[in-house]
Design goal:
Layout (H helix, E strand, L loop, with lengths): L4 H15 L1 H28 L2 H10 L7 H13 L1
Helix pairs in contact: 1-2
Amino acid sequence: MGLHFVDMIIVAAIALALFGPKALQSVAREAGKTAGQAKQAKDKIMAEVPLDEVTKIKDNMPQVPLNSRQALQMLMDSDEK
């Protein structure tokens, strides 16, 4: 599932027909600026948080099984503890 290349071209053509090239250009520019600001904020936060604390938090978080075999293994491991 998901968007394929052809689907994206169709959506882009419809958006171009509805809004025009100038409006789409400004929307794309603002989206790019927003993505850049989000990346800068993420990098700033990651620089301030020590890596060992992130590792501790990750280790303490419960894992979600991705398939039935992993779920069964997690159940068996929890019974042993």
